[in-house]
Specification:
By secondary structure, the chain is an alpha/beta fold. It is built from 13 helices and eleven strands. It is globular.
C-alpha cells in the first residue's frame, strides 16, 4: 500500500506542472478586470484603456476598466492586492504608488513590495511644465524670475501629495530656490481643468495637456525628463536649462496580486510587449504625450526600486508626508 501511495504521489507530481500549464493556457475564460488606481481622464486611465483594448483582442476576452482613485493610488492598489491571484484582476498604476507611497504614508493598507507584483510596463510618462498662454512668462527664465519675485504667491496643482508631478515641482523649487503653494487634486485631469480655468499658475502635466499646448491655450516651458519628448521636440529639458540631473519621469504599468500564476504573468507581459511593438498602439500612446516602454517583469520591478531610492531622498529632504 505504501509503495502504491508513493507511486501515486510521484505520478501526481509529474503531471501537476502540465496541469498548471493547461490551466494557464486556458486563461482567460471570462472577462478580466483592470483596476485603474486613479480617476478617469488622467494618464493611468488613458493608458489602461489603450492597453486594455489591445489585450482584449489578443486574449479573446473583454478587459473591463474600473477606476478606483484616491489616496495617490492606494485605494485601487489595495483592491487588487486583496483580490484572488487568478489573473482576473489586474492593476494599472503609476510607479509612484509602489515607489513613493511607502515613503509618505505613516501606514498603508497593504504593502506594495509584498502584496502586488509587477507584470508589464506600458509607458514612460514625462512631466511637462505648463502655464496658461496668457502667462507673462514667455520662457523658463522669466517663469523662475516671477517665482523668485513672488515667493509663496504662485500656486501649482498635482494629482495628489507625493504624486510624481508633486515631487517634480518640489525638485524644481529646491533646485531654483523658489517657493509656490501646492494644491493637491484627486487626479491630473482636475488639476489641468483648474489651470485652464485660471485657478492655478502652473502644473507638471503627464501629457494630457499637449492638445491644449498645440491649440495655443497653454504654453510648455520645459520637460522634467532626461531627454526631450518627441511630441514637443522644441521644448527643452530642465537639465538643458541648468537644472543638472533633473529627472521626474514615471513608468506606468500593469500589476497583479502576489501569487498570480507565473504562466499568466508571462503571457500578459508577452501580449503587452507585443502590443507596444505595433505602430498603431505606439502612435496612440505618443498622442497622449507618453512614450511606450516595454520591460520584463524583473526589469519593471528593478525600475520601481531605483525610483524608490531616487524619490525617497527628495521626500525625506523636503519633509513630505501624506498628512500635510
Amino acid at each position: 500500500m505504501r509503495i502504491f501511495v508513493i507511486a501515486l504521489a510521484l505520478v501526481g507530481s509529474a503531471i501537476s506542472p502540465s496541469l498548471a500549464q493547461t490551466t494557464a493556457q486556458a486563461w482567460p475564460t471570462h472577462p478580466v478586470r483592470l483596476v485603474v488606481a486613479f480617476p478617469p481622464g488622467g494618464a493611468a486611465d488613458l493608458l489602461a484603456r489603450l492597453i486594455g483594448q489591445s489585450l482584449s483582442e489578443t486574449l479573446g476576452q473583454p478587459v473591463v476598466i474600473e477606476n478606483k482613485g484616491g489616496a495617490n493610488g492606494n485605494i485601487g492598489g489595495e483592491a487588487v492586492a486583496r483580490s484572488a491571484p487568478d489573473g482576473y484582476t489586474l492593476l494599472m498604476s503609476s510607479g509612484s504608488m509602489v515607489a513613493i507611497n511607502p515613503h509618505i504614508y505613516a501606514s498603508m493598507p497593504f504593502d506594495p513590495a509584498k502584496d502586488i507584483i509587477p507584470i508589464a510596463s506600458v509607458a514612460r510618462v514625462p512631466f511637462y511644465l505648463v502655464v496658461r498662454a496668457d502667462n507673462p512668462a514667455r520662457d523658463f527664465t522669466a517663469f523662475i524670475a516671477d517665482l523668485k519675485a513672488n515667493p509663496g504667491k504662485r500656486n501649482y496643482g498635482s494629482p495628489g501629495i507625493g504624486s510624481s508631478p508633486h515631487l517634480a515641482a518640489e525638485m524644481l523649487k529646491k533646485m531654483t530656490g523658489t517657493d509656490a503653494i501646492h494644491v493637491p487634486y484627486r487626479g491630473a485631469a482636475p488639476a489641468l481643468n483648474d489651470l485652464l480655468a485660471g485657478q492655478l499658475d502652473f502644473v507638471f502635466d503627464p501629457g494630457i495637456a499637449i492638445e491644449h499646448v498645440k491649440a495655443g491655450k497653454l504654453r510648455a516651458l520645459a520637460i522634467g525628463s532626461p531627454q526631450r519628448a518627441p511630441q514637443l521636440p522644441d521644448v527643452p529639458t530642465l537639465a538643458e536649462l541648468g537644472l543638472t540631473g533633473f529627472d521626474a519621469d514615471a513608468v506606468f504599468g500593469l500589476y497583479a496580486p502576489t501569487g498570480t500564476p507565473g504562466d499568466i504573468v508571462k503571457r500578459v507581459n508577452a501580449e503587452t510587449n507585443r502590443a507596444l511593438a505595433t505602430s498603431a498602439l505606439t502612435e496612440r500612446i505618443m498622442a497622449v504625450g507618453n512614450i511606450p516602454e516595454a520591460m520584463s517583469p524583473a526589469e519593471f520591478g528593478e525600475k520601481s526600486r531605483e525610483d524608490s531610492d531616487r524619490f525617497g531622498a527628495i521626500i525625506r529632504e523636503r519633509g513630505i508626508t501624506a498628512g500635510q
